[in-house]
Amino acid sequence: MLSLADAPLERTQIALLCQSAEREFVGVQAGIMDQFVSCHARSDCALLLDCRSLQYRFVSMPGNASIVVCNTMVHHELSGSAYNQRRAECEEGVRQLSSFLPGIRALRDVTLPELERHRQDVSMVVYRRCHHVITENDRVLEAVEGLQRKDLQRFGQLMNQSHNSLRDDYEVSCDELDLMVEIASVLPGVYGARMTGGGFGGCTVNLVQNDHVEAFRRELFTRYRAATGKQPEIYVTEAAKGAEEVLTPFRE
After folding, report:
1. Measuring CA to CA, which residue among 188, 197, 164, 169 is closest to residue 80?
2. Which structural domains are found in the chain, ordered by start?
3. CA-CA distance, 109 to 107, in Å (whole number)?
4. Strand 65-71 to strand 233-237: parallel, antiparallel, or no bridges (unpaired)?
5. Distance from C-alpha of 131 to C-alpha of 129, rounded to nearest angstrom
6. What is the mean pLDDT of residues 190-204?
7. Whole-angstrom Cα distance, residue 228 to residue 225?
8. CB of 242 within 8 A of CB of 76?
9. pLDDT band at residue 27 using 50, 70 and 90 as cut-offs
10. What average pLDDT score do residues 116-131 get?
């Protein structure tokens, strides 16, 4: 559309406009991650994004493992409103903690020891939300180190820890997501599994050894359907490059 309108925009600018559309018209106070990676992604790479500065760098993905996305077939309208609520709770955490930690602008400015030191100064709900965000930021940085070392065992452990935190501290999972992660975690060749997206339904993302992918698909499909009666959709995917203009020949 931009090309047809002769209105070129830089990719980061496109991502920011897409974020604005989601916030102003859809009403979800979304972050920039999904829009940014859709514009900037590179084949066979993960993208590490600093959401404050919008600086980013690529980290090579291993060739001996596949990303498998599994859809629980559960869709909850709650996800949008709950997202806004969680964001508000995190902002309340920043407000309360700023009384003791002057100068902080977001939870990224708070260390885990600092949060623990002021645990009694915030409500339990706010503490759990802050605990998730702060530990998740730490997990992201450690995950990058794991990928650089090609340590997929550690990377998978961090995926599992992330899901547990999303389930227990951030409370955005659901029974079907937890079940799907539980099933995946005991299957051969699985490094890690976690929910992805807004939560309360939707998909899990799994890192699976290439030679176990087909068996993983069969087993997860069978076990999840037997437990829930729902037939999951399972996609074997790869890290691909971002959006681009595709030219196709015109045929009369």
Report:
1. 197
2. 41-237 (3.30.70.890)
3. 5
4. antiparallel
5. 5
6. 94
7. 5
8. no
9. confident
10. 97
Alpha helices in 1-77 (DSSP H): 11-21, 33-40
Name residues whose C-beta falls within 8 Å of residue 88's C-beta, 6 or more positions apart in sequence.
Answer: none
List the one residue out of 2, 6, 4 whose CA is nearest residue 18: 2
Cα–Cα distance, 146 to 25 (Å, whole number): 38
Catalytic residue among 6, 34, 151, 169: 34
Q: Tell me, what's the pLDDT at 166? A: 97
34 annotated active-site: yes
Cα 206 from chain centre? 12
**Terminal alpha carbon distance of the chain:** 22
Question: What mean pLDDT comes out for the span 49-61?
Answer: 96
* Mean pLDDT for the stretch of residues 109-126: 97
CB within 8 Å of 139: residues ≥ 6 apart: 158, 161, 162
pTM of the model: 0.90
- The Cα 215–Cα 137 span in angstroms is 33
Burial 194-231 (b: 16+ CB within 10 A, else e): bbbbbbbbbbbbbbbbeebbeebbebbbebbeeebeee
Angle subtended at Cα 208 by Cα 145 and Cα 33, rounded to the nearest 5 degrees: 55
Could you say which DSSP state residue 62 is in? P
Q: What dihedral do alpha carbons 235, 237, 242, 246 form, nearest 10°?
A: -70
**Alpha carbon separation from 238 to 15, 147, 232 (Å, rounded):** 21, 15, 19
Give the number of other Cβ atoms within 10 Å of residue 27's Cβ.
11
Q: Which one, of 29, 10, 8, lies nearest residue 20 by Cα?
A: 29
Rounded Cα–Cα distance for residues 237 and 134 (Å): 29
Q: Given this model, what pLDDT does residue 226 score?
A: 98
